[in-house]
Write a structure and sequence with these properties.
The structure holds 2 protein chains of 2 kinds.
Chain A (H helix, E strand, L loop, with lengths): L1 H24 L8 H10 L4 H18 L6 H21 L6 H25 L6 H24 L8 H6 L1
Helix pairs in contact in A: 1-3, 2-3, 2-4, 2-5, 2-6, 3-4, 4-5, 5-6
Chain B lengths: L1 H24 L7 H34 L3 H36 L7 E11 L7 E4 L12 E4 L3 E9 L4 E5 L6 E6 L5 E6 L5 E7 L9 E4 L11 E10 L5 E8 L8 E8 L1
The chains are: A mainly alpha, B alpha+beta.
Chain lengths: 168, 270
Amino acid sequence: MASKIRILIIIFLAVILETSFFPALFAGTIVPDVVLVLIILWSSRKKFEDIWLWAIWGGFFLDLAIFGKIGINAVSFVVISFMASFLRERFFIAQRTGAFVIALTLVTGGTILNWISTNFLTNFLVNFSWKLLLMKITSNLVVAIFMYFLIARYKGVFGINESKLMMK
Amino acid sequence: MPKKLLTSKLIKLILAIAICLALILINPKNFFAPVRGFFFALAYPFQKTFYFAGQATHNFSSVLFSIGDYKKENEKLIRENNEFLARLASLEDQKKENDELRRQLELSPRDKYELESSLIIGQDQRGSGSWIMIDRGKSDGVAEGMPVIVYDGILVGKISEVYDKSSKVLLLSDSSSSINASDVQTSAKGILTGEYGLGLMIGMVEQTDIIKVGDDIITSGLGGLMPRGLLVGKIEQISNTSDKLFQQAVVRPKIKYSDLNVVFVIKGER
């Protein structure tokens, strides 16, 4: 129970970072998708069965905070989490040494997918721009690098049990 | 065994998507308004702290990046300061002239309204200039539809959702924003709408009306809580609608919405 509350608090703080801290820090430019990156990094280390509820909560909190339609980000996060988890288990499981690169690859793919899906669901790609997408990927990768090492350092806090992954 | 795992996984995925779709479907019934209110009540202190921390970091990094230019800047400022002192005397006259022009152009005087100053504590994280969040809400007398301006009477948007201690301001550049506006110089009237965060557009201007590039656009005061005479921007480009029934024009906002720090809510007239 305590670990579930801790995860909820982490998701909540990630939402606040994304909607209040980063918009003030990068005024008028691209803001990194902190919650999305967190969900993808979790998915690259845990099974989808353990992640899907967190993905829903992440999307739900984010939709509340950005005045979006509730469920839009949640559905995007769930699908991305499934794909990240699926790819990791099917293709990347043996490549333990490349875990960092794999995580960044998943973040890149997830960012593109989330960009397209949320843009399509909210304003039908009216604002679609390759330049903005590239900036979004870059900013997400920067956050992912930082977060990757943070999660690796504090596995317990982020609810990661590496041994489970290795047993598979 | 792997097949079984995939099946269980797929069931979870389908269940998760079903939950999300159900959430999307019950949206229009305003089902989540109380949940959102509770969320913002909980998030308010965090939003405020995180936003200020973000601003402080932004300012600090700006200072760090520009530290090399400070010496030159200082010399330039001393020179400019001397020039400004000389100009100060003539500014008093210009102020009187400005007040007279405001009166003639029917722009709203700044001290006419009961204003509630507020700090921005959040903004559209997509950077599309759609909305901002301010630290004033129901408990401060803020209500839906109230206009939001910056210090010198420039309109930035209106209150669209109110919570106990915070409110959402729908910026003029949002695609769902729509207000009655008029041309200061020619009195032509039209509807000002947002262009998906990309800018502003005044439309529905009759062909018989005259609008010119460079004209100022103000609120016309027709309908709602929006008073007349709040400055919006300048006409940049004029065209006709595809059916040639109306004129329309791109309006350049007077200010950059992403750079706002403090705004004022117009709660009423004095």
